[in-house]
Amino acid sequence: MFRDKIQNARHAYTYDDFLLVPNASWVEAKDVDTSVNLTKDIKLNIPIMSAAMDTVTESDLAIAIAREGGVGVIHRNITQEAQVEEVRKVKNAEDITVRDVITISPDSSVATVQELMENESVSGLPVMDGEEIIGIISKRDVRPYLKNGSKTLVKEIMTSEVVTITEKASPEEALDLAYEHKVERLPVVDENKKLVGILTIKDILNQDQHPNAALGKDGKYLVAAACGPFDLDRAMALDQAGADIISIDCAHAHNMNVVKFAETIKENIDADLCMGNIATREAAEDLIAHGADGLKVGIGPGSICTTRIVAGIGVPQLTAIADVADVADDAGIPVIADGGLRYSGDIAKAIGAGADVVMLGSLLAGTYESPGDLVTMNGRKYKQYRGMGSMGAMTGGSGGGADRYFQELEKGNSGQMKHSKLVPEGVEGVVQYKGRVSEVVFQLVGGLKASMGYCGAPDIPTMKKVARFVKISSSGIKESHPHDLLITNESPNYPTLD
Ligand code: XMP
Fold first, then answer.
1. Phi/psi of residue 461, each to 5°?
2. CA of 180 to the centre of ligand 1 (A)
3. Is the pTM value of this prediction over 0.70?
4. 453-476 burial by CB neighbour count: b if 16+ within 10 A, else e?
5. Residue 142, ligand 1, Cβ within 6 A
6. Of 231, 165, 232, 222, which Cα lies nearest the Cα of 404?
7. pLDDT of residue 199 exceeding 60
8. pLDDT, tens digit, for every residue of 227-260?
9. Is residue 404 annotated as a catalytic residue, yes or no?
10. Among the residues of 181-296, which ranges form H helices?
11. 452 Cβ partners below 8 Å, 6+ apart?
12. pLDDT (0 to 100) of residue 257
C-alpha cells in the first residue's frame, strides 16, 4: 500500500517542462485581443494581476498596472485603515476634480478676492450663500476693478448664471457643457446640489490618456485588495472603500475553515470574491461550491517561496493550473495562475494550460512603482523583494503575513515580535531594478501576443483551447535558452545579470 503511494504517484509538471507547439495560423501578433474576464463580471484588457505582496503592490503600482489594462491586489501587511487609503488612492487616481474648493461670500470685496486668488493660486471662486452656490467669479471679472474699484462687491460683478455639473458626468460631457456655455470651470455638485468640487477645462484636456486602462463598474481604475482568511472587518472596509475584488489571501485555501468562512465574507461584500491559493481539482470544487468568483492557483511555485522545501508541499504549477482549470472551466469560473512565472512565454504557457489570468510577483517587483527604495550594489540598481511568509514580512508591517500561513505572532517582553516562534515559508532578497511598469508590461504582453500568433489564437479564450504542448527534456530546456555565446547586450525581456 505504501509502495503503491510512491509507484502510482502522478508526474506533475511546470513551465520549463513544456513548450507550446506552433499551429497553422492566420493570426498576426499585433491584432490579437488580450482581454479576459477576471471574475464573472470583471474584465481586464491584459491578463495580468500584480501580487498582494508588500514589496509589490501598493497604490502606485496598482494605478500603473490598471492603466496598462491589468489589476493590482493591494497587500494587507499594513493596517486596515492604511490599506483602505491605498484602495481610495487608486479609485481617485484620475480624479481631476479639485475637492478642497476655496469659496467666497457675495459681500466680499474685489480686494479680498484678489488676495485670496493670489494666496491660493486659483483663478476662479464659487460664490456661496451658505450652502447654496449663487455665482462664480474669475480673475477676468475682477481685473477691471483692481485699480479704482477694489471695494466693489463680489455680488455686483460675479457671473450669476452658474453652469454646474454632477459627479456622475464623464469628462466628455463636462467638456461639451463647458464649450456650450463658454465657461472655463464647472462647479461639481452632488444630488442635493451641494458643492463638492470644481473642474476646469484645462485639467480635463491635460488628463493623461490611457485607452487600454482597466475600469470597474464605477468607471474608475480597477483595484483588488487582499484580506486575511478570517478578517471580515477588513474585507467589509475594503469593499466599502470601492475595491472591485476582494482576494482572500491564504497559503492553503483548501483549509475547510477558510472555505466555510469565505461564505460569510461573500455574504457581506458587494465586490467579487477571489480565493486562493489552491493546487487541486478537489479544492476547486469546494471553493466554487462556497461562492468563489475566481480561483487563485499556486502552492509553492513563487520565486521567494520555500513552502515546498519547508513543508514538502506543492504541485508543480502547470499541472496545478490544468487540474483546477478542468473544474473551473466547466463552472465558468476564471483561474488565476499565481507565482513561478519568469518570462513572457510562461504567461502563454499558463493560459495554454487553462489559466485566464496570471499573477506576478517577482516580474513586477523592482519596478519604479513598486514599494521600497532603490539600492545600488556593484554599480547595479536593485529593489527589495520578499515573500509574505518570510521572517521579515511576518514580523514587519502589520504582521499580515503570519495568518496567511496559519501562524500567530507572539510578542516578547520588549513588545517586539518573537522571531523564534515563527516558521517562515519564504525568503527575503533583492531583484534587479526594471524601470517603469509600463515598459515591463509592454514586453510581457508583447511576448504573449507573439505566442498567440504562433498558436493561431486571436483571443485568450481561443488560446486556452488551441494551445498544444510538447514535453521537453533537460536538453530541450538547454537548447531553448541562448547558448554558446557570451551575451554582450542585455535584452529587455531576457534578463541575464541577476
Ligand atoms: P513570483 O514567482 O511571481 O511569486 O515571485 C509570487 C507569488 O508567491 C506567493 N508568495 C509566497 N509563497 N511563501 C510562499 O510559499 C511566501 O513567503 C510567499 N510570498 C508570496 C504569492 O502567491 C505570490 O503571488
1. -55, -40
2. 53
3. yes
4. bbbbbbebbbbbebbebeebeeee
5. no
6. 231
7. yes
8. 999 999 999 999 999 999 999 999 999 999 999 9
9. yes
10. 201-206, 232-240, 256-267, 281-289
11. 27, 29, 32, 34, 348, 458, 459, 463
12. 96
